[in-house]
Amino acid sequence: MTSTGPTFADLAHRAAARRDRPAYGHDALITCDRLVRIFSTDGVEVQALQGLDLLVREGELMALVGSSGSGKSTLMNILAGLDTPTAGAARVAGHDLLTMTAKDRLRYRREIVGFVWQQTSRNLLPYLTAAQNVALPMQLGGARTRRRDRSERALELLELLEVADCRDRRPQEMSGGQQQRVAIAVALANAPKVLLADEPTGELDSHTGEQIFAAFRTANEHLGTTIVIVTHDQAVAGEVRRTVAIRDGRTSTEVLRRTEIDAATGQEAVVAREYATLDRAGRLQLPAEYTEALGMRHRVALELERDHIGVWPDDSES
Ligand SMILES: Nc1ncnc2c1ncn2[C@@H]1O[C@H](COP(=O)(O)OP(=O)(O)OP(=O)(O)O)[C@@H](O)[C@H]1O
Ligand SMILES: [Mg+2]
């Protein structure tokens, strides 16, 4: 650890305090508002994001799911500062991702976000050891750090992620799971506000995938880093409190999980509940399984009740 910044204990304390705060109001660290990204190749336009809304609270650990081509990587690349949206608004830790200058963007990528990719080979430099890989971003970062502080912090991060024994090994001398844990340490080197991971367990078997997920949880709990993980893995998605589903370039539904004590047995149980996103214009996307089950198309009947809104199949023509 460098001599200045907060200690791991301070960060863990702050993270715990944040996790207990329920609301999303003004403390969102990531805000996407009607985000649009259109790709044009050879005159053909693809709307990868079609007005996506997303709020992520500081200190959250959440998962993004969605079928292939739904826009998950497009969103991650924008949040990582590697790509710019066509329209809409995106802010991360006070940085406006649409209007940022090239210089700000470089600083943003080095200091505000860290990322872990699916391909283990894309995360680490092959000719550097694990410890050197972790120290490199600190060396490139703005803050002037001494070589000894850098290697101390690198080792602390490798220890935290339980791969300290790999410190003198090059990537090809490590397993895929070890490489991904070192990759998380690299991504955390400059103490970013946000850690983004696009299918980080995609190339690993399920047991190793679980270990990688545990490493993300450790980073979230001990360092307070806000973490967004794109995953196809249902087991991983089931481990987080909040899973947001993307469909056709928009956020459609989300599942929130809470631990509750069962009144009858006194045992703890995780209760999951599905929610739909309501955008600022009041638009709501109902899950296709629900509308198809009731044959709802084009139009539905609505009724405002005291504590809920009723939605019925269109009966006007029957
Ligand atoms: N650079 C690009 N140029 C043109 N089209 C692109 C580009 N990147 C993505 N797309 C298109 O945008 C859409 C969303 O792609 P994206 O990679 O974000 O999907 P994804 O949800 O990450 O899918 P997967 O689960 O397969 O990784 C797709 O139709 C894709 O073909
Ligand atoms: Mg993808």
Task: Give descriptors for this structure.
318 residues, alpha/beta, Rossmann fold, seven-stranded mixed sheet, four-stranded antiparallel sheet, 29% strand, globular, binds adenosine-5'-triphosphate, binds magnesium ion
Overall description:
The protein is an alpha/beta fold and 318 residues long. It has one domain (8-285): 3-Layer(aba) Sandwich (Rossmann fold). Helices cover 32% and strands 29% of the residues. It has ten helices and 13 strands. The strands form three sheets. The chain has a seven-stranded mixed beta sheet, with helices on both faces. A four-stranded antiparallel beta sheet has the order 2-1-4-5, with helices on one face. Strands 12-13 form a two-stranded antiparallel sheet. The N and C termini lie far apart (71 Å). The mean pLDDT is 88. The structure holds adenosine-5'-triphosphate and magnesium ion. Magnesium ion binds at residues 72-73, 198.
Task: Produce the secondary structure layout.
Blueprint lengths: L7 H12 L8 E14 L2 E14 L3 E5 L6 H8 L7 E6 L2 E2 L5 H11 E4 L3 H4 L6 H11 L6 H14 L15 H13 L5 E5 L7 H18 L2 E5 L3 H4 L4 E6 L2 E12 L6 E9 L11 H6 L6 E5 L4 E5 L5
Parallel strand pairs: 3-8, 3-9, 6-7, 7-8
Antiparallel strand pairs: 1-2, 1-4, 4-5, 9-10, 10-11, 12-13
The site of adenosine-5'-triphosphate has 12 residues, from strand 1, strand 2 and helix 2.
